[in-house]
Structures are given as structure tokens and as C-alpha cells.
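Example (one chain per record):
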Amino acid sequence: MPTNRPAPGKPPRHVPNAILRPIRRLALAAAIGVVAVGTVLAQDIRFFQIGTGPTAETRFAFGGLLANAISNPPGSRDCDKGGSCGVPGMVAVAKSTGGSVANIEAIEAKRLDAALVQSDIAYWAYHGTGLYKDKGAAKNLRAIAMLYPESLHLVARRDAHIRSVHDLKGKRVSFGGKESGELVHGRLLLAAFGLTESQLRLSALPPGPAADAMAAGTLDAMLVIDADPVPILTELAQRTAVDLVPIAGPEADRMRAKYPFLGAATIPADTYAGLATEVKTLEVGVMLVTGANQPYDLIYGVTRALWHPSTQILLTDNQPRGKLFRLSATEMERTGIPLHGGASAYYFDAGVIK
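Predicted structure:
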């Protein structure tokens, strides 16, 4: 049967070429424009990975807020128009990790661009002392900022009758995972209070599984280092009766004298259900660290974005520890490791350090 349909790839006979030519040119220009924009976006976006900690801990939530604050992907509104005030062209991503020790190893291996790390572990890593005496120094480690303090929470089931660190002897205890800050500090506690690991029934459980084990009655005590209130401990206190064991007295005083990065802290009364009195403990700072190999201009921009007023508002409104995030020379002195050149330059320009 005859048909008026044009052959594939040929224009209909009733459409003049004079009309089709400009249409083709516009279509080609549009296609080239889409490819060009895609190429520019792909080239201009820089991903910046930040290691944090287990998802149930404050470091993960805090790291997520920081990642949002320092990001400024292509196409974002200008900062002064209510848009992102981060590093132009950068998308930061917060990643859940095993904790400080794992984060430092990832920085050294260049698997992470930056990470949240407890200040004492960063100090040992850089100087090759303490935990890193046999591992060797992580000389590539550099500080960007001191963020906020974390408290040592030694939590025990009430029916386990643990009133002091000494009472951990013979008990079922978890000091966190194998590469966690809890394990490091748990060992410091045992040494200060005259106990050894062999005198405890130790389990290597991350905070979440440890809390579940305590609720189930298969674990007597756990150590969590986090900013109070710790969500998993808030939930645990609602599931079963627990006590916060004080970390105080002459043993704690000797720990602070020996390890300057440890400070005295108090967990306020009623922070957790059923705990009506305040508890004395210790605290350690959390830092944002990076590798010395990171570009100078990039870390300058990251540091500037960290201390932008919009970041302070974001942290204060969304994170209890955000109110403790303050820019001062004193905080810079507490890092215990060298600042990255880009961070140092920003602090100098901002008049924080001389």
C-alpha cells in the first residue's frame, strides 16, 4: 500500500530545509550546552570525606552538620543571599567509622580528607607515644580546629552493684570496639585504678550492641566517651536501671596530671532517667584533623567556613555541643599537634594567633 511517510532519517517533504536548518542548529547548540555544563560541573565539584564515629554517637551527628556547613556545590545561592557559605565547588560527606584510631589510620592512608579525633589519641599518634609507641608516629597528621569536649561515661547495671572503677573486677565489661577511643581510655582507667584486663571479663562491643547487651542482662558495664546526653544511654536508662560510676578521686587526679589532654568534668543530675545526682568524671576534646598533604587553599577555605557565623548558628540550633564550639587562642593551644598551614594562615588572618 502506498504511503506518504518519509524514509527513516529524512525530513518530511512538506517542511522546507530553510526552516529545519535553524532548528537543527538550536538542537545542536542545546546538546553541546548540556554536555558542557555537565563537564564543568563534574570538573568543578570536589568531594571532601570526613570520618566521624559510630552512627549512634555525637561525632557522627556533629560531623554531618560540619559537612553541611563547609559544602558549597556549584549552583548554590550566594552566602549573603541565604545560600551556602562553604568552600565553593565542594561537597563534604560525613562517613560513619569505628572511631578515632580508625580515623587516623584512614588519614594516613589518604582514604579520608579529614576526621573527628579525640585530642589525646591525635597527640599520641603524632608524637609516636602512648598507644602509638609501637605503631610509629603519624607525622602526616595536622589539626584544623578543636571542636568540643566529650565526657567519659562509665555506665553499669544497677543490679551489678558497681560503685567505683575498682568494682569492675570480675565483671562483664565492654570498652568499645578494637579500634575505639573507649578501649584506649578503658586501659588508662584500669592502670590508674590498679586493675588489669585479665581481671575483667572484657568484650569488644561498639556502644550500640553494648547497650543492648546491658539491657538484656548479659553485660554489667560499658564505657562510652561522648557528649552528654548520649542518645543510646538515654534509651538504655529508660529500658533498665543503670548507674553512672564516678571517675574521680586521687586516681583521676593523677590521670589528669599525667595526661594534660584530660580534664575534669561533671555530668549534671537528671541527664539520664533515674540518675538524680551529678557525677564527677573526666573529659577529652574532639578535634577536626587532616593530612599535611591536603592543599593549602582548600584547608584555608574549610577553616574559614567552620568559623563563619552561619556555621555557629547551624551548630547551636541543631546540636547541644554546638554552643561549646568557640574560636579562641586557648582552644588552638589544646590541639597538641601542628596546625595545617591553611588553618594556621586563617587563624593568623583572623587575629586569633600571632
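Caption: Confidence is low (pLDDT under 50) at residues 1-20, 25-43.
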